[in-house]
Amino acid sequence: MFARVLLLFTLAVAQLVGLLLFAKGFFPGKVVLKGNGEFYHDSAPFEQQYDRLVLMVVDAMRSDFMFSTESRMSFVHELINKGEALGFTAYSNPPTVTLPRLKGITTGATPNFLDAILNIAEEDTSSTLGDQDSWVKELFMKGFKINMFGDDTWLKLFPSYFSKTDGTSSFYVADFTEVDLNVTRNLQYEIDHKNEWDAMILHYLGLDHIGHKGGPTSPHMAKKQGEMDDIVKKLYNEIVKKDPRTLLIVMGDHGMNDIGNHGGSSAGETSAAMLFVSQKLGKVRQIQDLAPLSVDEDFSYFKRIQQIDLVPTLAALFDFPIPKNNLGVFIEDFLPLFKKDRSLNVLLQNAYQMRVLLERGGIDLEKGDSALSKAWLEASTTKTSSSIYEFLKEAQDELAGASSNYNYNDIYLGLALFAMAAVVHLVQYVVLFSANKITGFVYLIGFVLYAASFFGSSLIEEEHQVWWWLAISSCAILFGLQIRSGTKGSVFTSLLVLFLARLLRGWNNSGQKFNLTTNVKIGSIIDGEKSLGLGMTLFTCYLFSSAVTKMSRAQEVVELVSFLSSFLLGSIAASIKILTNYEDLEETPKFLRPLVIWIMDNLDTVSPRACLVPMFQLFYMTLGCVLAARLMIHRVWPERFAGSFFSDLLHTVTILLIVQASQRNVPLFVILLLLRWAVGTSISRATSGLSAISNITVFSIILQHLSFFSSGSTNSLSTVDLTNSFNGVSDYGLISVGVLTYISNFGGPLFVILSSLVLLYEYRHKDVSDKFDVFYRKSVIQFTFYSIAGIFLMVACYSLRFHLFIWTVFSPKVLYFLSWFATNVVVDFVLGLVLVALW
Amino acid sequence: MTSKAQRMPRIKKTVSFSDVPKIATIPPNDSQLTADSKTTSQNSSSTWVPKLNKTVLTVPFHIPMFAYSLFEHYNITTDAVSAMSRSLVVLVAFQVVYALILMQNISESPKKKKTKKTVKKARVRAPESGDFLYVTFACGVTLLGTLPLFIVLILFGAPFTVLLKETYLLAVHISFLVLLPLLIVYKIADNDSEVQPSTVWSKLLTFEVADWYKQPAFTMAIGGVVGTWLGAIPIPLDWDRNWQTWPITLLVGAYGGAFVGNVLGQLASLV
Predict the structure, then answer these.
(1) Nearest CB partner across the interface for A472, out of B156, B160, B238
(2) Nearest of B147, B104, B109, B110 to residue B127 by alpha carbon
């Protein structure tokens, strides 16, 4: 048995390596041109329009926040109507995450997918722009003194170009006010000492944090927009108004979707606002509608441009060469600023620069008769602004499409390694089910059906539907098996399973297509009734802490100690939840306020927020102690406590999962607990022996995924929940934050994994002859499932690598699959094996 | 054996279609008898299940036609609710006629056969008043059955707070499509039969009836359910077609599945 488990382990490691290799080949770095931009065929093509630049980036400033009638930025509207500001809706290229967006905004290039991941791994240094050409670098080389205040992503991108900095971290999402005050506090000094700088970059994060926490309609949103408006007012009155050669740009780096997240490619996420403010704009004023505009469902306000169009525009306005990798097109509305003969030069420089990029990409404009070559011919012969614009747009489309090249060796090697291990798994699977062919075959059909869904982009986007479909089919089969076995009450348990599963499905919106419609879901009802949500959370906390004590039927002293410790743990968790609730200004019931004050008094702090870090640390410590004590008790009196070993651990760990879950998802654990009972009872009624083990395993796989999607997750990066990633962390640490993020997003699956151990070893306590044999069977089925799914996914990604959605749908799915597979290896297999060995 | 010999001519009379010779040479209840003996050997309580005569009459040709008319005549893609409710009368009418046809083509239970020999000889006969009464009664039960079916649809994932009308109409359609024929063939209460219908139903539900795949009414129900189940698949796909709206694909799946199920059952019973 040891040899077989060791084989499984080796295969798992091989597959993990294979997957990582595949990912390495699939997400390569992009080829970028080295060196600086240059002027083409002309030594001084531009005529400098501005001497001073103020760039104010407001994270997640969606177009409607600035321009619609819902917007509170009345000063901005006033400026637009006065003609001193130009508003645009700027398309933000997905992935709509800050780091890749900043790269795009500064270099003018389209992002590469890896940037999205590196955005989360903050400590990584491979994302610096180093030598890559950008307007920040060009301005620096031009001798501009650039000051930077706000999001420290900028500092990571440009470690050496800023003369004065004050960075804020973008990851403490619960903080709405301080991040922004830390930026604004520098303003007055800079305004008073304008001779000390030429360019100033401000990056405000508060608005994005509000979005993550409460969505675009959060009560904090209006206040924050007002705050931003006041800053624009201050900048205008004290800088722009005093100097016609100053340009102020206010922009969002990306937008947000209807639930306040971003990362994907929906209209809300990609429509960022962009506003140019300058006295000079009065001269070039186009006929623009009067702000604010009525609400537009597609978030289109004023003219639509690309965010990267900012790059050549800045180059021309400040007179420096257009950065080398730029795909942006000069914004037409600024052409009238230049003298008639100079304005054509601006466009020509833009065209020459793009042509170099095209030639590097292997496209010869002089030959061939593609639309692009024709446009070039037209542009280079006629040299009219309209023909050059035609060419620039064509070139932009062409270049944005061909962005990266794959490392095929890594892809093939990774796929081969994974597939070889998969074949061994399959052989083990066939041997395992040799006596039970029909069951094994039915499972295989299910596995293949699921895996085949990876070939449809919508089925990846709506994966929760696939799982729901597989889940109810399995429930129906289980129903039939139970009725056949003829035990009493099988109709009840079957209906209960269906009912609970339906509740699970009704909890949250999942999927990417219908996610944003205002569906009435149980979760949104809880969000509306804050005290109901809090009540349910507290109930769940104490339910699980009392479940721990109920299980250990032992001597009174042990029971008392066990009761006290788990009650203490549950109470800490409950107080943390109350504090978080209080801190988020969600109406905490009055009778709980004395508790908050009591905690604050004891911790000697003034705000509930300051209590949280020590409270979390206390919680983690208590949790560690309780778990260690439970394991120790088991070593001392193995027989007495074996019966509840797994369920005690499960219930204790669930309190951690509750702490890491958002309030609306906490009651899911109660449903999952009931579901565990109902499914467990049904399975033990209907089947026994190997089929029971395999049924439990298959249900575990199904419920893991179902619970994952029921908590509102999807296969898009935008639904990664970061709100609980910093619980109790006072300094940013990649590992601790990563683990906390993982736990808060995979809470449901973790619960189900531990539950399956309970079902395998406690419900069938007397049947278990060889605990490792049971574990081996379970693992073979799971690895077979992941092997099939993995091969299908990799083949799908490989064969669809030129698909339109490869970056927005398939690539995030690869990352999610990686985390699922890692969950399977690390938690389900290794951790499970350790627990079973301890049992 | 005598009863079998007596029955053969009756079959010949009934079936006046192309496949007469084949059917006539194979005694219709032969397979049933062997099946019975099989079940007896496996299971102590043998279950006799009513069977349909092998005739093309019992193939529900109206179903595909009706499904086609849902699109062509009732324009289900523009307004599902109105199409489904307006077509309901026609569906019920069709299904009642179909039910009456089924009534005439049910083979009698062994006990009944002996008592009603004279009547049998007279077949094909016109429907009797008792038949009409039972069909009316079955329609009532079918209507009642829509409620649990509606709940089952919701449990199986139909939207709960919205589109309730659509879901309920879907339940009504499915109910008349598959539940009514089931009620006609397997009866809900039958004093004459030696086997309680309730046992028949529970045996059917768990596939414990021997040769269940040779029971067209049953395979029709299975087909309808499986079709509805498969009908959910196209909804999430991003083809943006108007027929992808709830519950058109499920309805089409139900109709298609029921028809295919019935035909497969008929074919299986010929073998």
Answers:
(1) B156
(2) B104
Pairing relationship of beta strands A199-204 and A246-251 according to DSSP bridges: unpaired
Q: How far is CA A250 from CA A76, A220, B173, in A?
A: 10, 20, 58
User: What residues make up the domain containing A115?
Assistant: 29-119+131-401
Domains: count for chain A? 2
Quick one: which of A784, A785, A6, A792 has its CA closest to A431? A784
* Two tokens, residue A560: 């008392």
Within a domain: A224: yes
With beta carbons less than 8 A apart as the criterion, state whether A39 and A349 touch: yes
- Is residue A461 assigned to a domain? no
- Candidates B160, B208, B232; nearest CB to A506: B160
Q: How far is CA A796 from CA A94, A167, A449, B131, in A?
A: 21, 42, 14, 58
Tell me which residues of chain A have a C-beta less than 8 Å from any C-beta of chain B: 456-459, 461-462, 465, 468-469, 472-473, 480, 483-484, 495, 498-499, 502, 505-506, 511, 513, 519-520
Contact A498 B232 (CB under 8 A): no
Least Cα separation, residue B215 to chain A (angstroms): 19
Q: What are phi and psi of B118, to 5 degrees?
A: -60, -40
In the listed set A401, A431, A448, which residue is the last one of a domain according to the structure? A401
Residue A107 lies in a domain: yes
Contact (CB<8Å) B232/A469: yes
Closest residue in B to A478 (Cα–Cα): B206
pLDDT < 50: residue spans in chain A: 121-126, 516-518, 551-552
Whether residues A522 and A382 fall in one domain: no
Residue of B nearest to A511 (CA): B236
pLDDT by residue for chain B (271 residues), tens only, comes to 334 334 344 333 333 333 333 333 334 344 433 333 333 334 434 566 777 777 888 889 999 999 999 998 888 888 889 999 999 999 999 999 999 988 888 876 555 544 444 444 445 556 677 788 889 999 999 999 999 999 999 998 888 878 889 999 999 999 999 999 999 888 876 655 566 777 778 777 777 777 788 888 899 999 999 999 999 888 878 777 888 888 899 999 999 999 999 999 999 988 8
CATH number at residue A250: 3.40.720.10
Residue A544 is predicted with a pLDDT of 83
Q: What is the DSSP code (8-state) at residue A294?
A: P
Stated as kind and residue range, the H or E segment containing A201 is strand A199-204
Assess whether A194 and A342 both reside in one domain. Answer: yes
Which value does ipTM take for this structure? Answer: 0.75
Owner of token pair 């994907």: A264
pLDDT of residue B195: 65
In this structure, is residue A16 part of a structural domain? Answer: no
CA-based nearest residue in chain A for residue B156: A472
**Rounded Cα distance, A335 and A313, in Å:** 9
What's the pLDDT tens digit per position in A392-434?
988 888 777 655 567 788 899 999 999 999 999 999 999 999 9
**Cross-sheet strand order for the sheet of A52-58:** A162-168, A146-151, A199-204, A52-58, A246-251, A271-277, A85-91, A303-306
pLDDT value, residue A672: 94
d(CA A750, CA A10): 23
| Rounded Cα–Cα distance for residues A638 and A669 (Å) | 28
DSSP tag of B126: P
- How many interface pairs between A and B have CB atoms less than 8 angstroms apart? 46
CA distance A807 to chain B (A): 17
Please check whether residue A458 is in contact with residue A439, taking contact to mean a CB–CB distance below 8 angstroms.
no
**Is residue A200 located within the same domain as residue A75?**
yes
The predicted structure's pLDDT at residue A556: 67
Q: Which of A376, A380, A379 is nearest to A364 (CA)?
A: A376
pLDDT tens profile A585-603: 666 777 888 888 888 888 8
